[in-house]
Write a structure and sequence with these properties.
alpha+beta, 32 strands, 44% strand
Length: 653
């Protein structure tokens, strides 16, 4: 039985508890607002305000509620505040708190609005006051977000995106609470929309735990779908995503990713996107660009003085038409273009209407924007005009200096090209060395029936230097030399007789068939100065006929002015031998006989009218004055080493 003294003690404790509870229940928690505001301002260096009520509901897991919170933006920010929340409430575990660990068992955020922005100098408004000791984020349980809003702005990249964030449901565990994000706005001045579904919220706060994420985004005409994990969202320290990418033009990736890619037809690519530290890689990707397939791996490293792109890409079936953008071919209006863009492209195409060489200017700024080391292999080539069978290239870019090594398997032979473009100077300087080896004539012109039975190997060399901002202007200002030879082999007699306009021989071949004539030598040698190719030697020397060429080709104006004069070595009673002229433009070349032919034919017709039939043959009697030319001397002239030339590009290294 309790003593009277024990009863008095219990009464006293009960009274103290009741008085304390009454005092706490009557306590105005708003009195603590200045203290809380000072502590937050001390940690962040920004003004923090609680304009509404601060309340605490006591229990074994006390609930703390605050209304109308705001955190000031940086003084250079576009507006105030940086953070605004209508209502924030959370339950805290007091027993864990006594041990120095913050555990928030329940968090509810109503109508939060966060503004993240950069200024033109790259400063970020989320860079707060530096602390001596890094603050650990609290552990969280249930999370509820109602009508969240996140705004990101970067005037330097013309980006302004608004994202709306909400939780799917009030799960008992934040790790089971999915996030839904819907975003829209402008990204690098392009229209932007995105839908993202996030997974475990607790892993979103953890710097080392992968956070599951899936979604899709559209930026301009580029669309991406992704599914995987991101680690350390704030620093974006690691990423592992399955990525599907499609769009109308690969070059549109540059303003989005900073990766320089040549203009292309529509594409679709999928692969595994990995990110760690400063490296981004697309592993074992595959896809389609135009009619060509692509596969391989690429790595993009942003940790150096300039971004660096490395890669090994292969195409099992490559359509050369898909590479038109690489040499600066203009692209016509696309369905997704704005009216202004369509009008601009129409005008651009109209300016190129009468020209064949691409005159679209290189994006010199992009050549200087990143370095590269890319290997590309085209295993099988599709092309309706050029007999290219295989292609291997190696492209290196170092601070605007591009070096391209290309090996083509063409017409049973090869073309090896070494091209240097120095974009460090303005306009860019270029130098090219091209070697042509053992091209087979029938494979080189497969559509010409006259060459089907022809034989012969073609070789040659080109060495040029130039300056310009497009393929057209580079060739139009070129200096150097270009030569081709055909040594040995056979060539169609019909082809020679047609050039010689030998009527009797053509009639004979059309009736009883063609025959081949041995080629002793064929040489074409041009000196190039300021885009003007002047023939130094042009001879096709066969046992049947010599064809002598003379004239020039203007690369700047894209015009041809050549004269081919056949000199038959046989006697032909019905010969209409006369020079043949090549003229016109690259786009519309013209071939016509010398005006002497019209005089001769006219005279023959006149004599045929006023005299006997035999008299009409008189003007056509020729004796064939052609003589063999020294083939070895001509070939030696083309094969002799060119004088060494100092490379503009090398001087700038």
């Amino acid at each position: 039985m309790s003593s009277p003294r024990s009863g008095k003690i219990l009464i006293i404790f009960a009274a103290i508890f009741i008085i304390a509870a009454a005092a706490i229940s009557l306590f105005d928690w708003n009195m603590l607002k200045p203290y809380v505001e000072r502590q937050v301002e001390k940690k962040t260096g920004r003004v923090f305000m609680i304009r509404g009520n601060l309340d605490v509901s006591l229990s074994f897991t006390p609930k703390i509620s605050m209304e109308r919170l705001s955190l000031a933006n940086a003084d250079w920010g576009t507006r105030q505040p940086m953070l605004a929340i209508d209502k924030l409430s959370f339950r805290i575990n007091p027993w864990k708190l006594l041990g120095g660990e913050i555990v928030l068992r329940e968090i509810s955020i109503s109508r939060p609005e966060v503004l993240l922005e950069k200024n033109r100098d790259g400063k970020r408004n989320w860079d707060f006051k530096k602390e001596e000791k890094e603050t650990e984020l609290p552990k969280m349980g249930r999370l509820m977000i109602d009508q969240g809003k996140l705004i990101f702005r970067d005037p330097k990249t013309e980006t302004d995106v608004t994202a709306r964030i909400a939780t799917d449901s009030a799960s008992a565990d934040a790790r089971e609470t999915p996030l839904n994000i819907v975003a829209e706005g402008k990204f690098t001045s392009l229209e932007f929309t995105s839908q993202v579904h996030g997974g475990e919220v607790i892993s979103l706060m953890d710097k080392n735990l992968p956070y599951p994420i899936r979604g899709n985004a559209r930026i301009g005409t580029t669309h991406a779908a992704f599914d995987g994990t991101i680690t350390g969202l704030q620093a974006l320290s690691a990423m592992d995503l399955k990525l599907q990418l499609d769009g109308n033009d690969l070059s549109a990736l540059y303003p989005i990713t900073g990766i320089v890619v040549f203009p292309s037809p529509p594409y679709r690519i999928s692969g595994r996107l990995l990110h760690r530290k400063t490296e981004w890689s697309l592993k074992e990707f595959s896809g389609q660009v135009g009619k060509s397939d692509l596969g391989g791996s690429i790595l993009f490293d942003t940790g150096g003085e300039r971004p660096m792109l490395r890669g090994d890409v292969i195409s099992r079936v490559l359509d050369l038409e898909d590479l038109r953008g690489f040499v600066g071919a203009r692209k016509g209006p696309q369905p997704q273009d704005s009216p202004a863009e369509k009008q601009e492209k129409k005008a651009s195409m109209a300016a190129q209407r009468d020209r064949l060489l691409p005159d679209q200017e290189f994006r010199v700024d992009r050549l200087r924007a990143m370095d590269a080391d890319i290997k590309f292999t085209g295993v099988s080539i599709l092309n309706k005009d050029l007999p290219v069978e295989h292609l291997v290239t190696h492209t290196r870019i170092d601070n605007g200096l591009m070096v391209l090594d290309a090996d083509f398997t063409v017409a049973g032979g090869s073309i090896n090209a070494d091209v240097t473009v120095n974009a460090r100077s303005d306009p860019p300087a270029a130098e090219a060395q091209v070697d042509v080896k053992r091209l087979q004539l029938p494979k080189l012109f497969p559509k010409m029936e006259l060459t089907h039975e022809s034989l012969g190997l073609i070789g040659g060399r080109a060495r040029i230097k130039s300056r310009g901002k497009s393929v057209g202007t580079l060739l139009g200002s070129a200096d150097g030399r270009f030569g081709l030879i055909m040594s040995g082999g056979w060539i169609s007699n019909m082809m020679l007789e047609i050039v010689g306009l030998d009527g009797a021989e053509i009639l004979k071949f059309l009736v009883i068939g063609d025959k081949n004539v041995k080629v002793r030598c064929a040489v074409a040698d041009f000196d190039i100065k300021k885009g003007l190719m002047k023939s130094e030697a042009f001879v096709i020397d066969t046992t049947d006929t010599n064809i002598l060429g003379d004239g020039h080709i203007n690369l700047a104006e894209e015009t041809i002015k050549m004269k081919l004069s056949p000199e038959p070595k046989d006697f032909s009673i019905v010969s209409l031998r006369t020079p043949v002229h090549l003229s016109g433009t690259f786009k519309e070349p013209k071939i016509y006989p010398d005006k002497m032919l019209a005089i001769r034919v006219g005279a023959a017709v006149l004599l045929g009218v006023f005299a006997t039939p035999l008299a009409s043959l008189i003007p056509l009697i020729e004796t064939g004055p052609g003589e063999d030319h020294n083939c070895r001397a001509l070939i030696a002239a083309v094969k002799k080493p060119l004088p060494p030339q100092k490379k503009d590009a090398q001087n700038a290294r």
